[in-house]
Amino acid sequence: xxxxxxxxxxxxxxAVGRAFVVTRQSATVVADRGSESEEIERFDAALQSSIAxxxxxxxxxxxxxxxxxxxxxxxxxxxxxxxxxxxxxxTEACQSACxxxxxxxxxxxxxxxxxxxxxxxxxxxxxxxxxxxxxxxxFEGVKQGDIIVAxxxxxxxxxxxxxxxxxxxxxxxxxTTSHVCIMARNHSLAAVVGLGEQVAxxxxxxxxxxxxxxxxxxxxxxxQTLDSYLVRELxxxxxxxxxxxxxxxxxxxxxEKVAVxxxxxxVEDVVKxxxxxxxxxxxxxxxxxxxxxxxxxxEDEQYEAYSxxxxxxxxxxxxxxxLDIGGDKAVPYLGFEREENPFLGWRAxxxxxxxxxxxxxxxxxxLRASSEGxxxxxxxxxxxxxxxxxxKAVLEKCKAELKAEGVAHNQNIKVGVMIETPAAxxxxxxxxxxxxxxxxxxxxxxxxxxxxxxxxxKVSHLYNPYSAAVVKAIKMTIxxxxxxGVECGMCGELASDSSAVEMLLEAGLRKFSVxxxxxxxxxxxxxxxxxx
Length: 532
Ligand code: PEP
Ligand code: MG
Hints:
Elements: E1 2-5, E2 14-21, H1 36-58, H2 63-72, H3 74-85, H4 90-106, H5 111-131, E3 147-150, H6 155-160, E4 168-171, H7 179-186, E5 190-192, E6 207-211, E7 216-219, H8 223-247, E8 251-253, E9 256-264, H9 267-275, E10 281-285, H10 287-291, H11 299-313, E11 317-321, H12 349-354, H13 356-369, E12 374-379, H14 385-405, E13 414-419, H15 422-426, H16 428-433, E14 437-440, H17 442-450, H18 468-484, E15 487-490, H19 501-507, E16 511-514, H20 519-528
Parallel strand pairs: 2-3, 3-4, 4-5, 9-10, 9-16, 10-11, 11-12, 12-13, 13-14, 14-15, 15-16
Antiparallel strand pairs: 1-7, 2-6, 6-7, 8-9
Helix pairs in contact: 1-2, 1-3, 1-5, 2-5, 3-4, 4-5, 8-20, 9-11, 11-13, 13-14
The structure holds phosphoenolpyruvate and magnesium ion (MG).
Phosphoenolpyruvate binds next to strand 10 and helix 17.
């Protein structure tokens, strides 16, 4: 029996099963090279084969629609060709170009942008496999109940794995925001990632206990340990079933309705959230439209996405957050400059107010979609009343334009503010007079209140949503909202934490916006809250 450990919190379940150790095709870099034109020709042929394969996959899986855009982007080809031009073989050039692009994205502290880094690795792995003679499915032979063990799992791997059949994942690389963890949480699978070299201690067919709660893997446990985990696994399974039973119900606290909505980053997320029992979407991150494209999405493209999301909500609220980009989240075609302090820099509403035409295109699209459902608009990173006033003035201008053009929209669209900066907390009473709702964004609020970068492991003890200062700020915000009669929700990660439910309900929070995988758990916890 061996125990492996990680500090990464990937999901919140336990699984027992046999290891299926993934062996990849050797991606040894071929240094032998032909002439420059021969290498470019080899690369182009591999790229074309990759694009053709991705096109087929994209018909049934949206992950690949994003891959298709990236693979077809001139920037990708140019960066490889440049390396070939300076003497690399096609495979070496792919490895170098991939490293550059991945480093660029991985440095960004954002779930969606980190996921782009995985997509890039994934595409280059495919191109390299095609260069070396073809793509094989490394998951052939996975059996019901297996636990997948790999150095790394990329988005396209997920499309090859039957997520209904396996019990979990164990990987050497990966962080809590990597794709494998998001999938594990959404599918209630166990996952332990970031184990590094320890993964090599697992062999094909080993019996594994994967404990995502403690961040540990036990390899070939003795029978006593195995029995105790099998009991825990059964108990967790029974609890999950109980939770699932309330997922589709409305829930109340002290006779008042409590909405449990979901956070979504795409139209597909909205569909899944509603199927999973969400009472609406409390945070629709509009960034994906801008990041999955090599040019700014047009007003019509945005309208298509927002209205599809509104229809998927079927009359439930859809809260669209305007573009939260900037600082470390660079969109190449917007020409952002590198900043010394990106989190304190030009991001979110600051960018939108400075790029008014782009902001208008987004607001017009949101307004047009507002005629097709209960669409609400929410502004990120507000720190002053003037910013809110400025954003509302642009919104009014867009309404007037649409009215003059005879285009349908909701003149009374609800306007909300993300409370994610200490400044917003301190002026919450004034903001409340000027908007219809608040949504507390604890992910940023914690880092700004505690002056602790959410991605810096050395200060992670300070990045704590239960810190006295953060709890006080949350309570102050809710009190201001209740006093002013505006709705107050929470869409940061703390809303998905069942341990926070009682404190938040007592403080007066009646709207939770959570990860889709947490809807049942949070609804269940609300129904079980003591004072209920
Ligand atoms: C937040 O800051 O809590 C939030 C929901 O926004 P994001 O995580 O997208 O920055
Ligand atoms: Mg935020």
